[in-house]
Amino acid sequence: MKKIATSVALFIAIMATQKTMAQASMTMKESTVEVGGSPMYPSKNIIENAVNSKDHTTLVAAVKAAGLVETLQGKGPYTVFAPTNAAFDKLPAGTIDVLLKPENKAQLTSILTYHVVPGKLSSQELMKWVKKGGGKAELKTVQGGKLWILENSEGLWVKDEKGNTAKISIADVNQSNGVIHVIDTVLMPK
Q1: Distance between CA 52 and CA 33 in Å, rounded?
Q2: Are 48 and 74 contacting, i.e. CB atoms less than 8 angstroms apart?
Q3: Is there a contact between 96 and 154 (Cβ–Cβ < 8 Å)?
Q4: Does the keyword section mention Signal (predicted)?
Q5: Would the pTM count as exceeding 0.85?
Q6: Which of 134, 123, 190, 108 is nearest to 158 (CA)?
Q7: What is the rounded CA–CA span in Å between residue 85 and residue 37?
Q8: What is d(CA 140, CA 148) in angstroms, rounded to the nearest whole number?
Q9: In angstroms, rounded to a whole number, what is the distance separating the alpha carbons of residues 73 and 112?
Q10: 23's torsion region: left (phi>0), alpha (psi -120 to 50) or beta?
Q11: What is the DSSP string of 86-97?
Q12: Which pLDDT band holds residue 184 (cuts at 50, 70, 90)?
């Protein structure tokens, strides 16, 4: 009886070790992109990855203030044009502080959802649309506005309804529920 119990315990330990090794192997095989000093894992959702990026602390704080965490953890898929902290720093002084106030939640939500497009659009797909569109592709945002994808010798750019442009500095950061393209400027709806 003691031999059987020992054998069962050994079998369970071996199976647990194999499962842990298989999970570690899968994680190692994941093609990650580093953003803000942290790897972004395709098996994690947009929020699970974004909270680890040192370059997106302002964006994460804004998403929390707007009550969009649950949405961006959802099934999606979403394409998110994610402004860096430096992008937010380009806004006039005090803008972020004002937007983060509870009474400005609707305006903040509008700005943030303007950075989100339904579906998972890779840079290759965006490029294909740009070429098909004669140099630009129009996208409809979750907010209801429009963005345009443009290409020049420096790569892909996003143009907002006010005429501002943002360079896609890191493309194709795959998530379990979409894709993130890091941008260097905050986009603004009309």
Answers
A1: 12
A2: no
A3: no
A4: yes
A5: no
A6: 123
A7: 13
A8: 9
A9: 15
A10: alpha
A11: HHHHTSPTTHHH
A12: very high
